[in-house]
Amino acid sequence: MIEVKSLEKIFGDKQALHDVSFQVKKGETFGFLGPSGSGKTTTIKILTGQMRQSSGTANVFGVPVSKLNTPEYRKRFGVVTDNSGLYARLTIYDNLKLYADLYGTSLQRIDEALESVNLGSEKKTQVAKLSKGMTQRVLLARTLLHKPELLFLDEPTSALDPANSKHIHNGLKELNRQGTTIFLTTHDMEEADHLCSQVAFLNKGVVQLLDEPKQLKKQYREEIIGIELKDGRELELPLKASSAEEIQQYISREMVERIYTKEPTLGDIFVEVTGRELV
Amino acid sequence: MTFSVKRFMAIFQKDLKDLYRNLYVSSTALMPLVFAVIYSRVGEVPLAMYLFVITLSLALVGTFLQCAIIAEEKEKNTLRGLMLSPATLTEILAGKSAVTIVITIIVTAVSMFIMGFSFDGRGWLIAGILLSLIFFIALGTWMGLITRSVLEASVYILPVMFIFGMANMFIGLADQFSFLQVLEYTPGIQLEEIANLGESGAGFDELWKPFAIIGAWVAATLVLAAVTFKKRMMD
């Protein structure tokens, strides 16, 4: 679906992307993770034909991104970025009707798309009266109208509260189940862990790690079993057969409050690999 | 190149609805009607005065409205959404221009009705006005693309108003200030030339020159607007 090879982008004397390569297969939810300024938005702009790369190749749907500016290709993908805008004087319905007409989808899809972002009862509301979180949800609904094959999402839940984030996450999972490939940029590692089948860590324009979240966690897992005892002590034992007897003793004496393995989060792995916090 | 009437109509209807709710821009666009009411009470009005109100309508409605519509799309980050949709450059610009064309024609026609000016038997003048309208709209499109907000557009429109909208008034001072003679080549003065030649019963062998000058303005601004739009499509 997306194939990027040795992509570079230079702004004046600043190199934003260095030799970036990755592939996104059909049906995948691919997470492009990194802190602000790491090159995530630049990559999305190149992949959606809004910006030209300095060198390297970027193909979407098997064609170079420079060929994406035809109505036929644009009907196949959708984009939500953090600076996408809506017509403030119009209602939510009027905003979505414009795009339903542009994409040639039925007006019934407006209600369905609004339901999927939990805004079904707000369609007559003027956009100027919406909160930032609601605006973000309308933008997402607008992108879902034409059921794109490929969805680019740039920080889609950055302005949302946990309840609405969860609602959006469920909607995106359902969309992915129906076959939509999702390219997601985020600095929310929990979101990436929850949604993505593959993630790439982008730091200062360089892809430093690329794998499945499960594999990364396995690879960076500490081989330790943690035991929290009822008297408040916490023990760490090696994840080896030799620890079994000691653990059994604690259990048989009914001293154990909790036993756990020390599995890192994607955020922990990012910090370990890049030496940077995700902000 | 594809052109979808459905997408063109979607943009046209959206802009019309949005403009209806935009009091600042729509009230500015109605300014020529105020001039028309004032001049209608003056009594005997020379042909030049009608042409002044027509040119003012073209500049204030055609250019400013188009400029404000596009500048606001940029200011509110909605133009990028349109450009990423299946709508083509032609459909976007045609949809927006259609709104401006309809309102400019209505304002111009109502202004002339108020002033008691009839277009009967003035086919050449109508043709000249329509050709000039393309120039003023292309100029507004280009200005909308180079300005970042409606407020900035309101400032940029001032020199356009003086040079292109009020040329018919300032040309009278050309004897005292020779640099003003350059205004003779503006579409407004050429429209006056077409009107005068038309009144005297001249044929196309005399009328081609003002039409050619307006045509040159149209070609130049269309190229400028198209090149600027293509550049602004990419970051």
Automatic annotation (TrEMBL), chain B:
Coiled coil regions in record: none
Membrane topology term: Multi-pass membrane protein
Keyword 4Fe-4S: no
Any one of the GO CC terms: membrane
InterPro entries tied to this protein: ABC2_TM
Residues spanning the membrane: 21-42, 48-71, 92-117, 123-146, 153-174, 207-229
Stated name of the protein: ABC transporter permease
